[in-house]
Amino acid sequence: MLGRADGERQIMITAMKARKLIIMLGIILFSINLCAQNTRRSIHLATAGTLPNYISGSEKYTIEELTLTGELNGTDFRLLRDMTGNNYLGQNTSGKLAIIDLTNAKIVAGGEKYLDTNNIRGNGINSGGSFHFAISENDVIPKMVFFGCYLKEIKIPNSVVSIEYTAFEYCRDMISVTIPNSVTSIENFAFGNCSSLTSVTIPNSATSIGNGAFAGCI
Prior knowledge:
Elements: H1 4-39, E1 40-45, H2 51-54, E2 65-72, H3 74-83, E3 99-101, E4 105-107, E5 115-116, E6 121-122, E7 125-126, E8 132-133, E9 140-141, E10 153-155, E11 162-163, E12 176-178, E13 185-186, E14 199-201, E15 208-209
């Protein structure tokens, strides 16, 4: 049978253990929250072409969800391709970016070329020379901009009026795409061979849908 002193000592030991356990749980929860923050980012671009200034080399391949507002040009999309698993040269990367929300972003002409198809063969592309794609118009999803990337979901900017030829072709992991009411044209093979696509809403504003725009979306 414990004496009073022994009993108080036992209570103190139990309290200390409980305190340590609470501290450990707090550290674990903080670490989980920190990891979640590291895989999700929201960035406002006051100037087009500045996304590389906001994303360090160490996190480029760790971000899984990204919300962008402000203006984007070819330089920004060149980095987004890299982050979504297929770089400027059409080579696979270890990028994990799967969900992009561009609802309140605006696409503007200019910046670096975002894709060189010279090294891409197969997948419906047989380029006889070097083809460097750049953004030449405002408010369009430019041709082949995410060709062959590993996106799962994307929300297209509310200001976009056209989704150009093969913009998302062979995004085989694509599950969901949100097309805003501003879009009037969806060009040939824009979503061709997006074989996992299960959710897409085509707005009433779309008056032109090109040949094979959703070909191979089984």
